Amino acid sequence: MIKIAVKEGGPNxxxxxxxxxxxxxxxxxNMPKSTVDTAIKTAEKAKGxxxxxxxxxxxxxxxxLIEVLTQNHTHTHQVIKHLLxxxxxxxxxxxxxxxxxxGVVVAEARGLSTENALDLAIEAGAEDVQEVEEEEERPQxxxxxxxxxxxxxxxxxxxxxxxxxxxxxxxxxxRRRCWTPVSWSxxxxxxxx
Length: 193
Fold this sequence. Notes:
Layout: H1 2-9, H2 17-28, H3 33-45, E1 50-57, E2 63-70, H4 73-86, E3 90-91, E4 99-108, H5 114-124, E5 128-133, E6 139-145, H6 150-157, E7 165-173
Helix pairs in contact: 1-2, 1-3, 5-6
């Protein structure tokens, strides 16, 4: 992720918002500063890869967007096409219109009820609030907003005493359908973020 951010916007986090967001995530996970600095320096010198988004439909008709970072677009295209066809999927255009890019601010829910979080979200300009639990079973609140409002929502959450705030973006479905569960194992799930 650091490599992509450095290639897109440069090594200075003051001028690169995506790199600044990633560095804040690294700090929240207590990643050593030397490791982060090494990753930034290596990304500056490394041969650049290209980022591609493949649109696909899986078994049962569900829509997938597959993002990859590769140095060989042709080979990656063939591998993804093979894996999809082997498991009942197909590369198909028209999946982007099903998703909107939304900003997400994740904050620790320390002593904040769902009702207070909803009030806070309305004041901050967020569109939705989801209460989730982290792997260590700490309650978290995900504030979903437009990308333009991302920094506004984050600054509105800082004074509320939240221990940390993480910024990110997601592809949020524009419409939801109930799909019947399909048992389908993806052999390279480590490729998917």
